[in-house]
Amino acid sequence: MAKPNKKLPQRTVSVQCQQCKAILYKYKKGGKGSLIKCFKERIVEDFTEQPGVCPKCVTQFARETLVRGTPAFKIIGNKAICK
């Protein structure tokens, strides 16, 4: 299986909580699809206190996992959006 690109994508997006609209991450996103996973190495700024939990409404929006051997957060069904 292929690893994610080492060269970071150009586009930076804000990842927000779907429920309370709090900003969770500033993330370097590649491609134009919806947000399914966030590779930890591409997170520029992290506004969360606990991994995968919104700091404002304390809702779990992601799970820690390995994707193609790289640490990532897998977003739980539309609990986080990117703008």
Structure in words:
The chain has 83 residues and is an all-beta fold. It has one domain (12-82). The chain has no helices and 7 strands. It has strands at 12-17, 23-28, 37-39, 43-46, 62-67, 70-75, 80-82. The strands form 2 sheets. It has a 4-stranded antiparallel sheet with strand order 4-2-1-7, with no helix packed on it. β1 and β2 (23-28) form a beta hairpin. 20% of the residues are buried. The mean pLDDT is 93.
Set out the fold topology:
Elements: E1 12-17, E2 23-28, E3 37-39, E4 43-46, E5 62-67, E6 70-75, E7 80-82
Antiparallel strand pairs: 1-2, 1-7, 2-4, 3-6, 5-6
Strand residue percentage: 35-45%
How many helical stretches? Answer: 0
Strand elements, count: 7
Helical amount: under 10%
Low-confidence stretches: none
**Overall residue-averaged pLDDT value:** 93
